[in-house]
């Protein structure tokens, strides 16, 4: 089984970068040593991701990305990204929406393979990995 990545737009919003997101997730997973995986990236609105964040993580606010690992072997998971929050962050960081969507998809992929961002050191490590895998993608 190769690394299979799908992107579904359930946000109702327009965006670009579907192939770039798929490439970004594949690059991150390969870089982390994954040889076989099935990952679904689902784009949502702020309202939808807010509902998920409240229901599953008990956080009463929208967020940029939520990741659900489903199986270890082969790696199977879902990455949910808010297009609205990604758009706001892209403007804040001075990057394109495609760049920010790819960064968030990579962030989700890193969570799938076990990286965490609970501490400052972990956040810095994940940010460095995001930048490395984002290089040349978007």
The count of DSSP E runs of length 2 or more, i.e. the number of strands, is: 4
Span of the ends, CA to CA: 26 Å
**Overall body shape:** globular
**Proper CATH architecture:** 3-Layer(aba) Sandwich
CATH topology name, in short, is Collagenase (Catalytic Domain)
Query: What's the SSE pattern?
Result: EHEHEEHHH
Helicity level: 40-55%
Secondary-structure-derived class = alpha/beta
Radius of gyration: 14 Å
Which segments are poorly predicted (pLDDT under 50) over 5 or more consecutive residues?
Answer: none
- CATH superfamily membership: Metalloproteases ("zincins"), catalytic domain
Strand order of the largest sheet: 1-2-4-3
The top level CATH class name: Alpha Beta
Number of domains: 1
Which range does the strand content fall in?
15-25%
**Main beta sheet, described?**
4 strands, mixed
Helical element count?
5
Q: What is the arithmetic mean of pLDDT?
A: 95
Tell me what you see in this structure.
This protein has 138 residues and is an alpha/beta fold. It has a single domain (3-134), classed as Metalloproteases ("zincins"), catalytic domain (Collagenase (Catalytic Domain), 3-Layer(aba) Sandwich), CATH 3.40.390. Helices cover 49% and strands 22% of the residues. The chain contains 5 helices and 4 strands; from the N terminus they run E-H-E-H-E-E-H-H-H. The chain has helices at 18-31, 46-57, 83-93, 97-112, 120-134; strands at residues 3-9, 37-44, 65-71, 75-82. It has a 4-stranded mixed sheet. Helix 1 runs parallel beside helix 4 and helix 4 packs across helix 5. The longest helix is centred in the last third of the chain and has 16 residues, at 97-112. The protein is globular. The chain starts with a strand and ends with a helix. The mean pLDDT is 95.
């Amino acid at each position: 089984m190769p690394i299979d990545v799908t992107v579904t737009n359930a946000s109702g919003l327009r965006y670009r970068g579907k192939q770039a997101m798929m490439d970004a997730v594949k690059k991150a997973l390969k870089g982390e040593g994954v040889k076989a995986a099935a990952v679904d990236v689902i784009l949502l609105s702020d309202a939808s991701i807010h509902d998920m964040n409240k229901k599953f993580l008990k956080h009463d606010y929208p967020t940029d990305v939520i990741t659900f690992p489903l199986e270890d072997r082969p790696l199977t998971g879902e990455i949910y990204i808010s297009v609205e929050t990604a758009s706001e962050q892209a403007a804040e960081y001075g990057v394109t929406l495609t760049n920010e969507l790819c960064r968030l998809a990579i962030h989700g992929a890193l969570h799938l393979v076990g990286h965490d961002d609970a501490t400052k050191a972990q956040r810095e490590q994940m940010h460095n990995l995001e930048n490395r895998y984002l290089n040349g993608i978007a």
